[in-house]
Amino acid sequence: MALKASPIWVCPRTPCSDLGSSDLWSRNSGSAFNLRFDLEKSRKWECCCLAVLAQRAITPVEDEKPDVSSVGPSWGIERTQGNESRGFHKDLNLLPKPLSANDLSSCSKDGSKVRVAYQGLPGAYSEAAALKAYPKCETVPCDQFEEAFKAVELWLVDKAVLPIENSVGGSIHRNYDLLLRHRLNIVGEVQLQVNHCLLGLPGVRMEEIKNVLSHPQALAQCDVMLSNLGVVRINTDDTAGAAQMVASTGLRDTGAVASARAAEIYGLDVLAEKIQDDDDNITRFLVLAREHIIPGTDRPYKTSIVFTLEEGAGVLFKALAVFALRDINLTKSRPQKQRPLRVVDDSNEGSAKYFDYMFYIDFQASMAEPRAQYALEHLQEFATFLRVLGCYPMDTVL
Ligand SMILES: O=C(O)C(=O)C[C@]1(C(=O)O)C=C[C@@H](O)C=C1
Fold this sequence. Notes:
single chain; 398 residues; alpha+beta; five-stranded mixed beta sheet; globular; binds prephenic acid
């Protein structure tokens, strides 16, 4: 004998993956009810469909058509006579699919559903970094770094991947500033081997090149080669943008420093490869997201923080000692003179703060480790400002 569920209100919307019970939705095709719905499970899955309010779990095995005569305000469920269900009078598949918890945390392991913003055009190194982090992601080009931050904040994309430092050129100051101005979390890092090429229009010879366009970091990374060529350097927003400009202007005396992939995309010739001064030209990118990740200890983690100190002799020594005492390796530390800088503080509102020096530190430990927690507690005793920018798995594969 089947238990009767009454009243049962069901979500008016199309199949909700969170429910885990496609049976619940079988009525969409007009077939019989088969409600094997487990209220406990629905709580666990935290379904976003508010409408699922089954008062009892039922298992009508033999009787596949529970009594729906008392179904409440109907969202497409027709009141029926007796046990007869005539199904929906509307095709509920046409209704928009509700966002589920899965959609919000957005992703399968390979990143197939993730939208990732980066600064530049297709073929930029930042795009390659995004694809390294999420091989099947949808990459979303942005004009400037700040647009990539905003795209995440406005939920237009799930993540942003932005360069933060290069082994030759050093820190990318703009992104350090933006990290403070915005409230995104660092959830990952990507180390990318950057091999620059000199690109030109098809058929052009290297000797014909008089001007070279590229991102200032890329031009700086190829200083020796460009000095030897004696060319005029012209800054662009990104390397792929430089390649696109060469292609679209059609200037035979103008080249671009960019990737081999950019050459392919914009139909240019590679005039010279690996033109960077240092063979080991590595750029480190940060992956930013609205939510932070739960730190683990299953693999090497890094934590990035920023803090300020009172003026005074020995205070920086004291600050660094909180890590040294606990045998925590610093992978990067960077003082930056800032005055003034608008910082988003813990109240989550932008407020003007006037700091002399901001100290950025990356240390090799997870916030899940007591030694990291104690170190920060210790630092907090005398830091005038402290923010954890993120704790994330280290990228150990080049
Ligand atoms: O212009 C690009 O292709 C970028 O991705 C930017 C950028 C940078 O900002 O450092 C990234 C990697 C290279 O170091 C050169 C340029």
